[in-house]
Amino acid sequence: MATQQEGNVTRRRALGSVIFGLISSWVFDVTNSTATEVGGVQGVLEERGKRLQEAVLSEYRNAPSINTRERFGIDIGGRVSEFIPAGTSFGDAKTILKSAGFEIAQWPPGPIPPHPSALYDENRRFLLVGTSELSQGFFTKVVCYIYVHPVDHDSGSYMTKSVEGNIALLAP
Description:
The protein is an alpha+beta fold. It has one domain (about 50-170). The protein contains three helices and five strands, in the order αβααββββ. A five-stranded antiparallel β-sheet has the order 1-5-4-3-2. It starts with a helix and ends with a strand. The relative contact order is 0.15.
């Protein structure tokens, strides 16, 4: 009688081990596929950033000479919006900009200036700003600025409404 009970216990343990193994295998596969999907999205954003970098450099190389008197330099907003379209989250826009070699100069909300001028625009605090130095001369440098505007900064949910991009010559 004892051997029959031991046999039943052994079979239950074996069955439990098989079930545990199947569940563990399934959980491992699900977490792996989720990690791959997340890595895939990250990879797509990084690839988009590399293509943005190529597009900015192409615009810079093919641009007529940049004059310091031009207030905003060369407008490349239309080209940039191909890579950061409306509806893109600010997190994804940040990944794209960093992959394109941009430094994130401002993450919303930006600081309130201590003594704002009459021209101060409160909405400027809620921009995602990326900068990238394209070239540097003895007294000048050419910089690309990208401004990502939120749909509604009051909601705290930052989604892209529009994008501005400029290549400008900075001189003392």
